[in-house]
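S1.2 Input.
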Amino acid sequence: MNISHFDLNTLRLFVTAADCKSLTRTAELSSITLSAVSKRISELERNLNCQLFTRQPRGIELTTAGAGLLRHARSILDSVNSMASELNDYARGAVGHVRIAANVSAVIQFLPEDLATFFALNPGIRIYLEEALSDAVIDSVESGRVDIGIFADNVDATVLKTFPWRQDRLVLLVPAAHPLAAHEAIWFEETLAWDYVALNQGSSLLRRITDTAVSAGRVLKVNIQVTSFDAVCRMIQAGLGIGILPLKAITPALLGSSLKAITLKDDWALRTLRLGINAKKILPPEAIKLMEYLMSVSDSSFPE
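S1.3 Output.
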């Protein structure tokens, strides 16, 4: 295999074909002829010495090799697009870029206002923000793919240099007509008789409540799992279970009408979000500036 035969246009055609599952549709979207698309894909298969698609009566399907190439092709094209975007920013006068990975709690509750203020103070700095699970955030910082990470305090971040940043309050969220809605405050263990709506596997919030249930000798009965706080709220509204979310992540309009937030008496319900950086690498000046700003707006209640 000769990697010098790879070109970005062919990779883009391959990704489009994989998404469309049709060479005809790929040709239409790419504004080239069907024969040209077919020739490019065939040349790519010859160069790789493996079949990437199987031809079906109504389209094409990726082979195992094709699925493997698709993962790499997406990564390559994403990197090229990121490079082009960054260089375009420099051409327009940007003075630096900072990459952040943060969990959904930080993205929803705190970063919109914090980053808006930072941008106003530092208009020449561009920020790339990636939302990810806390474990993935830590991996991204350790690998050097991002400069700063923000994650929950119940994940192992010993590979990083970390700092306490913000605190959020976890609450029990139930439908307004639910039997538990009569409570103003409740212990988590008292809720375990009910079905839960939870975030997807790997989330630090799911891990926190699952571990707590196990420590109490109980099982968290998860009725349905979703990928966002908004989806958790909608599923609870629909009566599919109860859930635990950060209070500031719940849309105020929902509270008091269709949903009720109940205080959790457990100490772990007051949660700390942490900032993390790679202890073995020096941050670029613009990342240092953002880090200093984020530390300046961190909660003042942390012990020295």
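S1.4 Remarks. The first strand starts at residue 53 and ends at 56.
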